[in-house]
Specification:
Number of strands of chain C: 9
Strand content of chain B: under 5%
Shape of chain C: globular
Number of domains of chain B: 2
Strand order of the largest sheet of chain B: 1-2
Oligomer: heterotrimer
Largest sheet of chain B: 2 strands, antiparallel
Number of helices of chain C: 11
CATH topology of the largest domain in chain C: D-Maltodextrin-Binding Protein, domain 2
Chains: A mainly alpha, B mainly alpha, C alpha/beta
Order of helices and strands of chain C: HEHEHEHEHEHEHEHEEHHH
Distance between the termini of chain C: 60 Å
Order of helices and strands of chain B: HEHHEHHH
CATH superfamily of the largest domain in chain C: Bordetella uptake gene, domain 1
Chain lengths: 500, 166, 324
């Protein structure tokens, strides 16, 4: 305990210097900016800004780059809420209720609760990292491919809960998502799968391409259909910040979301993407009236946003304690460290404590700054919604095009996004929901990879899923949720039929 | 888990509707997609237990998808009366056309050409568009994009045609 | 504050360049694009950013790194091969794109030996033979004997077909007749994670990926597949000193589209050479377990020879594996 305090003191003394505070602020600001811009992700930005950090000392540079990362995570939810575009997998669920809230003139409340939830989550996650990074790493290493597969199966259950309407249609969309995730070169055999000989998708389809096409462009197409629907988006402007009642409703979801996000975040192999989905499903399951979800329920924003931010924070654990990146942004952070002459690895805590603790302290400072940057911005964002739709949608289109282009500097991916826009529009017209497809897409890739690794390692024995305690526990949990939700789901779907 | 909607579609909705059964179309759509995917996955080996092949997941999921397609189609034929809403063809043509135009022009001509082209084409999707307003707006947006993406964020995106020296 | 000033300078430079037409001035008159055919943050990207930052200062023009990932790097290299040979597009490929790719991708649109103007190898990174912490053998000799007897029960982890750890592992296992189960991961990170966690048994991977884990003792190192010991791992013996005939280095190489004028090629090589001789960069290389090419290895001729010999060495092994 005493250690923790001295360590945090050391961290605060590093991160709290005027220069590092300034860099942290700059990072958060740039991060928020690129997060808000659809498609322009932290990877492209950090890569481009890397040369600018060459003149800085390593700690300052990393503090700034980390600021860009979580700033972008945060900014992404702004776009999700305002214009229905999830920039990253973790913002998909924010779209569901967040954008509905915006349509009802509650954009300010949604943005405000996202900011407050993220701050609380970030604070708690920082404490978790500081107090338990080491033991959590040991725990994470126990997670083998089989356990991971079981976790993904559990994750797919969430998709069913996620759905607003028909359950069979939601399951069909999960299948579709998994199918899309198999497009690309097979990592085990090197064969090209379902690419129809098209080199540009040989590495699979980028998540942003699907998300932006199916949410962003499809939504524009749908809005252009009805004059009335367009008017609604821009007419109302409600309260700018959540009030006490909103906060009271949101507090429990924020804490639950933080817990879920923190746990999933430190798992290797990008478990963080599951956090918001898990949080949303939990909130919907335990809500007194689940039918509010998908129609602007504040818990549906507060929980997942907190889970998202907590996960973004705890994803630093494998990076800082093992030197192994759990996702592409963290891989880039490692690249940045190497360029700055820091070899990331298990020894960083003992060899460069000022870097380790400075980074951790800067996370909390960064979260505070995000709150300070973003609360005043809410007024501006909400006012932006009043721009007439006839000007708004060409602007969204041009930002999206540039954003997608910037992912891989590829015009083909821009074309592909247009195709997914049409595809998404068709699916909406046919009464399907897009969110389960995206969840299937995100989980499908990991699930297949882990299944095949587990099968190779166990030499084909399915017992591996039962023998390993972690995997067994997860599978039992899946089964319990399945049974528990199957019975009422049938009843519920009948009820919805009558209410509508 | 049958989800039906016995409520009659509203009168306004019916006017715009294409006279096609929603669930039947949804089912056929899934079956068609599944068939295409299965066809593409044919050469892939599904493998065995100890070596799950590259073909297992694509084949299994497309079969599952086809199954749901059949289910939905039958549901529609059985009596789910919902119809498909009308499509906004104007939106599809101009919005998607704008994106295609951007993709085609960004590398050869750069952001300062591709951006305005995409914005102007897409603006034609909306009957409310006012010519002068959108021209001015496009000019401002193009400048803003240049400042934002090039000057602030340094993205390696071409700005002008290479002929002009940059 | 350094950053804002640099941003401002960059901004002014960018605006200035737009206004000046590039006609018959001294090369380079505008920013140069360096294509890295992999995602930002990987080994090739890191090395490229290290040297191009220094080269920018020598050349007096910014070199902008453009990451064009996909298909084991072949998409980016295809685009580089098709670019105009005016010196404003260069690329940094690696052993995978410049020697393994023809065997891995039957419809590859470039030939590493003939489609480019070679500039130079940028660095060599020796491969290291590593295993999970709990594997029994204590040294390389024991490991080879152990693998001979048990390899069919063991798991070799690699970062996906076409990756360096895949190719080097293939050559290693084929040379000694080992037949482990191959566990494929998406990238080195997850594979290394499972090696540290003991889910898989052994790997042959670039030293820069494994050095931190070796020094921290989370994995075991048996040998560096290199003639000399590397500075970052002074205690790990080399295959050569142990008398085992297995030398394997990953490398990165700077190339330009075919038909680059000789004077521009010289200018780029000169700038790259200055970068590779810079003390800071030499130090960074050491930390990465890398070495800069010296003597005959440096320059276009050395690179051309390397590409040809590596293609000849790797292709048969991979082809044989594909035919199986």
């Amino acid at each position: 305990m005493w250690d923790l305090i001295t360590n945090l003191q050391l961290g605060l003394s590093v991160a709290g210097s005027l220069k590092n505070m300034g860099l942290c602020f700059l990072g958060c600001l740039i991060g928020t900016l690129i997060g808000v811009l659809p498609g322009v992700g932290p990877i492209a930005t950090i890569a481009m800004l890397l040369p600018l950090t060459f003149g800085l000392d390593p700690v300052g540079a990393l503090i700034m780059l980390a600021g860009i990362y979580y700033g972008a995570q945060y900014g992404g939810s702004t776009t999700a809420i305002l214009v229905n575009i999830p920039g990253e997998a973790t913002a998909v669920v924010t779209v569901l209720d967040g954008h509905q809230m915006a349509k009802q003139g509650r954009a300010g409340i949604a943005l405000g609760i996202a900011a407050i939830g993220s701050f609380i989550a970030g604070t708690i996650a920082t404490i978790i990292i500081a107090a338990a990074a080491k033991p959590l790493t040991t725990l994470a290493l126990l997670f083998g491919p089989a356990d991971y597969f079981a976790l993904m199966v559990l994750g797919l259950m969430f998709a069913v809960v996620l759905a607003r309407g028909s359950v069979p249609k939601a399951i069909a969309m999960i299948f579709f998502g998994i199918l899309l995730s198999t497009v690309g070169t097979d990592i085990e055999t090197g064969e090209e799968r379902l690419t129809f000989g098209w080199m540009e998708i040989a590495d699979g389809i980028d998540f942003a391409v699907i998300a932006m096409g199916m949410f962003g462009f499809a939504e524009i197409l749908r809005n252009l259909e009805h004059k009335e629907a367009r008017a609604v988006v821009s007419a109302k402007i409600g309260r700018l910040l959540p009030n006490m009642a909103d906060l009271k409703v949101s507090l429990a979801p924020i804490l639950r979301g933080t817990a879920i996000g923190s746990i999933l975040g430190f798992l290797p192999g990008n478990g963080a993407v599951l956090g918001p989905f898990a949080s949303y499903s939990t909130e919907k399951k335990i809500a007194k009236d689940p039918s509010r979800f998908g129609r602007g329920a504040i818990e549906g924003v507060a929980g997942p946003e907190s889970a998202n931010n907590a996960g973004a924070q705890t994803a630093f654990i494998p990076l800082l304690t093992l030197g192994i990146p759990p996702n592409a942004v963290m891989a880039l952070m490692i690249g940045a460290m190497t360029i700055h002459g820091i070899v990331p690895g298990p020894q960083i805590i003992t060899k460069q404590p000022e870097l380790f603790w400075g980074m951790i302290a800067s996370m909390w400072i960064g979260n505070l700054m995000l709150l300070i940057i973003n609360l005043p911005l809410i007024g501006i964002w909400v006012r932006l919604l009043q721009v007439p739709y006839r000007l708004m949608f060409p602007a969204i289109i041009i930002f999206c095009c540039i954003g997608i282009y910037s992912i891989n500097n590829s015009p083909t991916e821009v074309l592909l996004t247009a195709a997914f826009g049409l595809f998404g529009y068709l699916l909406i017209k046919l009464g399907f929901e897009v969110a389960p497809l995206l969840l299937g897409f995100v989980l499908g890739r990991l699930m297949e990879e882990k299944l095949r690794q587990a099968m190779v390692i166990s030499r084909g024995s399915l017992w591996t899923f039962i023998d390993r305690p972690v995997s067994l526990a997860l599978l039992v949990l899946t089964l319990v949720i399945l049974v528990a939700s199957a019975l009422p789901a049938i009843r519920k779907s009948r009820e919805t039929v009558f209410t509508e | 888990m049958v989800v039906e909607d016995p409520a009659e579609p509203s009168a306004g909705k019916r006017e715009r509707s294409l006279n096609l059964n929603l669930e039947v179309c949804a089912g056929i759509f899934l079956i068609a997609a599944a068939a295409a995917a299965y066809y593409a996955a044919l050469p892939l080996d599904a493998g065995s237990m100890s070596g799950v092949g590259s073909g297992l997941l694509p084949k299994a999921t497309s079969l599952g998808l086809a199954g749901f397609g059949v289910y939905l189609a039958l549901l529609g034929l059985w009596g789910s009366p919902e119809r498909i809403d009308g499509f906004s063809f104007r939106g599809i043509i101009f919005v998607l056309g704008a994106i295609v135009a951007f993709a085609a022009t960004v590398r050869p001509f750069g952001l300062l050409v591709a951006g305005p082209i995409a914005m102007l084409i897409s603006s034609m999707a909306d009957p409310d568009t006012r010519p002068l307003e959108i021209l001015l707006f496009t000019a401002c947006m193009t400048a803003a994009c240049y400042l934002l993406f090039k000057v602030v964020l340094h993205l390696p995106i071409p700005v002008l045609p290479p002929l002009l020296g940059y | 504050m350094n950053i804002t000033r640099r941003t401002a300078i960059a901004a002014i430079a960018a605006l200035g360049v737009t206004a000046v037409p590039a006609v018959a001035q001294q090369y380079p008159t505008k920013p140069i694009t360096a294509i890295v055919p992999f995602a930002a943050g990987g080994p090739t990207d890191v090395v490229t950013r290290l040297v191009t930052e220094h080269m920018s200062r020598t050349l007096g023009q910014q070199i902008v790194v453009e990451n064009i990932g996909g298909a084991g790097g072949s998409i980016g290299m295809t685009r580089a091969a098709a670019a105009a040979p005016d010196g404003y597009t260069i690329a940094v490929g690696n052993m995978g794109t410049q020697s393994a790719a023809p065997a891995l991708y039957p419809n590859l649109k470039y030939d590493p030996a003939t489609s480019f103007t070679q500039i130079s190898v940028v660095n060599f990174t020796p491969q290291t033979i590593v295993s999970k912490k709990t594997l029994e053998p204590k040294d390389l000799k024991e490991l080879l004997a152990y693998l001979k007897a048990n390899s069919e029960k063991l798991n070799y982890g690699h970062a996906g077909v076409g990756s360096i750890s895949y190719v080097s592992g293939f050559v290693f296992n084929a040379q000694f007749g080992f037949k482990p189960a191959l566990v494929a991961y998406k990238g080195t990170g997850p594979a290394l994670n499972d090696l540290v966690g003991g889910q898989i048994d052994y790997m042959v991977d670039q030293s820069l990926n494994v050095i931190p884990q070796i020094t921290a003792g989370t994995i075991k190192a048996y040998a560096v597949a290199h003639p000399e010991r590397i500075a970052a791992l002074p205690d790990v013996p080399t295959t050569k000193e142990l008398g085992v005939d297995f030398i394997f280095s990953a490398w990165n190489a700077m190339v330009a589209p075919k038909g680059l004028p000789k004077d521009i090629q010289d200018k780029l090589l000169d700038a790259l050479s200055k970068a590779m001789d810079d003390p800071t960069i030499i130090k960074r290389y050491e930390e990465l377990g890398s070495t800069a090419p010296k003597g005959a290895d440096r320059g276009p001729a050395g690179l051309q020879k390397l590409v040809e010999s590596e293609v000849a060495r790797i292709t048969p092994v991979l082809k044989a594996a594909a035919a199986k």
